[in-house]
Write a structure and sequence with these properties.
Elements lengths: L3 E8 L3 E10 L2 E11 L3 E3 L2 E3 L2 H15 L4 E8 L5 E4 L20 H8 L2 H8 L8 H11 L1 H6 L2 E4 H10 L3 E3 H4 L5 E2 L4 E2 L1 H7 L8 E3 L3 E5 L2 H7 L5 E4 L4 H7 L9 E5 L2 E8 L6 H5 L3 E4 L5 E8 L2 H12 L6 H9 L21 H11 L8 H27 L5 E5 L6 H11 L2 E4 L4 H13 L6 H11 L3 E3 L4 H14 L1 H6 L1
Helix pairs in contact: 2-4, 10-17, 12-15, 13-15, 15-16
The structure holds beta-L-fructofuranose.
Length: 495
Amino acid sequence: QNTHYVLAFDFGASSGRAILGALKDGKIEMKEIHRFSNDPVIVNGTMYWDTLRQFFEIKQGIVKAKKYGTIDSMGIDTWGVDFGLIDEHGALLENAVHYRDERTRGMDRKVFTKIPKSELYNITGNEFNYFNTIFQLNALKENRPWMLERANKFLFTPDLFNYFLTGEKKAEYTMATTSSLLDIRKREWSEEVIERIGLKKELFPELIASGSIVGPLKKEICEELGVNSMKVIAVASHDTQSASAAVPTQEKDFIFISCGTWSLYGTELDEPVIGEKSLEMNVSNEGGYGGKINFLKNLTGLWMVQESRRQWIREGNEYSFGELETQAKEVELFQNFVDANAEEFVPSGNMPRRIREYCKQTGQTVPETPGEIVCCINQSLAMKYRRELDKIQYCLNKKYDTIHMIGGGIQSKLLCQMTANATGCRVAAGPVEATAFGNIAVQMIALGQIKDIKEAREIIERSEATCYYEPQNTEEWSQAYARYCQVTKRQEEEL
Ligand code: LFR
């Protein structure tokens, strides 16, 4: 018989996927039906996303989905902060620029002359990441002001695709909260911030809640692709928030790390926490599904492993992530640490070389082999998780004994075990497919197939087994932590 599906598009920094989801026997069943690469393209020194190609892949996904049965709805999630500008005729002015592009260098200082850092934090509750939308827009304002003059609407990446699909220009709440342009207490665009940066407020579309129906798929797209119309749903379109909607717990107070290219580390609150402690610790308040707030640290995740692997491939050695992990396990622990968030590790390029330089400069044993490099990265991430746990607990005056780890990065058992060892917390790892589960579940809630987020989390818990890691050798890890702090002092001071 005819199964009803929802279709999720999950865009990551290097690839994207289309996944079908259906409810069966109280579980969400998922099937990946389309996977594509999502490579940025550098042209004349600017790093762009290939926006039209991305939209092409969305169409491919829809075409592939139709043969499985009835597709009731679709929803898109992507990384945060990036956007496209639309002119008054609805045309895209240029490809979206990648958040790793260098245009935001030094923009934070320039923005803080227009609106002081603490004032900006007090309104938006957002931590300061060099790539936040506000810094990207300020770069345009200063260097290419004609782009903003010609622009009629600003649309975040998923909103841009939703517009191409339906003709509706909206801004979904979770994504909008990554911009540093929202008044996070009121959950509205901050006119104050927008004016002080020198932007026109008409540029910014109406905000809508996660789970809103944006509209039906346009008639001409249905005709082009030979499909029946379906609802286009604005899911929790910031990938981190799709993932956090899928943390498989019924507890109100929980802490999670969403592990992918980035590690998003935080907890879910009803209201933002904005104060001196959270400003000093640079913790973000970002919107979650259901109008919630995620009190969140944005840390580098497996980016350094991914980028090292790319370098080895360029050098003619293709190792799988599994092989790298096996080699890393053989290496003697605690020989070297790096601060994964140090500036030199942000751009793409020769990551192993930069790691070696960092270790040399800080007087540590220099990691040479791929196994040594990957061991260094993993133990450094685990130590970073410990330090950031301390900061979050300090700001909230709470203690956690279990950390939920979710997302693709938890396929590294080594990282999960090291996290337990470094933090002294039990790690509950799962689901791997958190973002896709969250995207699908929010669509099912919008369609009335799942009652609410509580029920969604129960269903997700049943749908994928959780793996547990108990802390081991915590004494040794504590001693090594002191060394980690010593080595990474420079970055902490720069904070
Ligand atoms: C994770 C993520 C982070 C965001 C970063 C850049 O994929 O969405 O939450 O800070 O990408 O947008």
